[in-house]
Amino acid sequence: MSDPFDARKARASGWFRDLRDQIVAAFEALEDSQTEGPFAGLPAGRFDVTETKRASEDGSDAGGGLMSVMRGGRVFEKVGVNVSTVYGKLGAQAQKAMAARGVPGMEDDPRFWASGISLVAHMQNPHSPAVHMNTRMFWTPHAWWFGGGSDLNPCIEYDEDTAHFHSVQKQHLDPHGPNLYPELKAWADEYFFVPHRCRARGVGGIFMDDRNSGDWEADFALTKDIGRAFLPAFLPVTEKRRNTPWTDADKDAQLVHRGLYAEYNLVYDRGTKFGLATGHDANAVLMSLPPMAKWV
């Protein structure tokens, strides 16, 4: 007899894969359309796609995914769009982490299943903001939830870009309730704060975790709209800034900001910690790191 969640798992993982395909196509089209500026003479960037596999301690299949990375493009210096579906049994450390988040019974039955999409883009032009997006579903026999969001990370801030990014997200969240966007915006402001630098990582966005309202269909619909908001929120900002002239000082500011981004992802990011703790492909987990960074 199949688990009643099997069909839901398949729908969720299928949606994450479809969203990945949409984003990859849109980013490669953006590369094709870059016909001016200092990188226009380069070949249009294309994603290198690698299948990732994960094995359990006994060597049995434990899932995997696709790692898609573009490097040295006309618009994108480095961008990764990863999807994965992994499963198996959580180790002792991960079981404790789940128990700390209020999930009961993990010691008795530590099975889990997780699927999601994760994206980080670092841009050639320092006036064009970096961006992060992910959505995911997590299941154990004891609980399930959705999580994710997206946030903008400019090294040179433009108020109109921030306003556009947030307004598109609000438009996609408002149908799910008038209080949801303010709640997820505040959550992002808190989550993407870098305590040891006493500053935000960027200009925010939306973020949620442990989303289980008791209505799986409603929570899945919300998760999909978070994903659908990404391209219309990000592409117009990129198209506006990709040809802005920059100086050496602008590029230096970008490298320093990337150092901040790397610090956050290595020290605080839950997804990075979970991926490494569960034995997922390290290159895929650390895809978010910038190609070049600087510390002063």
How would you describe what is shown here?
This protein is of the alpha+beta class and about 300 residues long. The chain is built from 8 helices and 9 strands. The strands form 2 sheets. The chain has a 7-stranded antiparallel sheet. The termini are far apart. The model has no long low-confidence stretch (mean pLDDT about 90).
Share in β-strands: 25-35%
Instruction: Kindly state the percentage of residues in helix.
Output: 40-55%
SSE string? HEEEHEEEHHEEEHHHH
- Order of adjacent strands in the largest pleated sheet: 1-2-3-4-5-6-9
What's the number of extended β-strand segments? 9
Low-confidence stretches: none
Helix segment tally: 8
Largest sheet: 7 strands, antiparallel
Q: What is the overall pLDDT average?
A: 92
Structural class: alpha+beta
* Structural Rg: 19 Å
Span of the ends, CA to CA:
59 Å
Instruction: Based on Cα principal axes, name the global outline.
Output: globular
Helix and strand layout, with pairings?
Elements: H1 6-32, E1 48-55, E2 61-71, E3 76-89, H2 92-100, E4 111-123, E5 130-140, E6 143-153, H3 159-173, H4 180-191, E7 193-194, E8 199-200, E9 204-211, H5 216-241, H6 248-267, H7 270-277, H8 282-285
Antiparallel strand pairs: 1-2, 2-3, 3-4, 4-5, 5-6, 6-9, 7-8
